[in-house]
Design a protein that fits this description.
157 residues, alpha/beta, single chain, six-stranded parallel sheet, two-stranded antiparallel ribbon, 7 helices, globular
């Protein structure tokens, strides 16, 4: 957990990080470079949660590499609602959510801090609009949490 005082905005006290997998921390089912190391650095600070529909069928391997167990979204449900429900269940006011897709829009909006990643897959416009911060890669997003003064510089009013 860590707290961050942002001038002109309420103090953020974050305990959880909720990460979309495909398009955010992985591309075509493969973890992106730098993700494993950064998540290992964040593990003592934040509880890490992965949520995915496992589009590429490689989530078990990703879980093994990260030492985590993702929440798998079954086919036929409203994925955006399910992702937002996880954020609410954890305590939205204590969550940072990171994603890029249309199904990430609601969790980015619900979370105390929503970060949209515009990576190789692109990003849904609705996710861009509902995020607090937009970055061009997952390592940049994770580095905002490892170097939180960068967040202060971006979010202060």
């Amino acid at each position: 957990m860590f707290s961050l005082d942002i001038p002109g905005r309420a103090t953020l006290t974050l305990e959880h990080i909720v990460l979309d997998v495909n398009g955010t921390i992985a591309l075509d089912g493969e973890l992106l470079p730098g993700v494993t190391e950064r998540l290992a650095e964040l593990r003592p600070i934040l509880t890490i949660h992965l949520i995915t529909a496992d589009t590429h069928g490689r989530q078990r391997e990703i879980d093994r590499l990260l030492g985590l167990t993702a929440t798998l979204l079954p086919a036929g449900i409203d994925q955006a609602d399910a992702k937002a429900a996880l954020v609410r269940e954890l305590g939205a006011d204590r969550c940072v959510a990171i994603g890029n897709g249309a199904n990430d829009t609601l969790m980015l909006e619900e979370a105390a801090l929503g970060i949209c990643v515009v990576g190789t897959e692109g990003a849904a416009v609705a996710s861009l609009v509902n995020a607090d911060v937009v970055v061009t890669g997952i390592t940049d997003a994770l580095d905002l949490l490892l170097y939180p003064r960068r967040l202060v510089a971006t979010l202060r009013r």
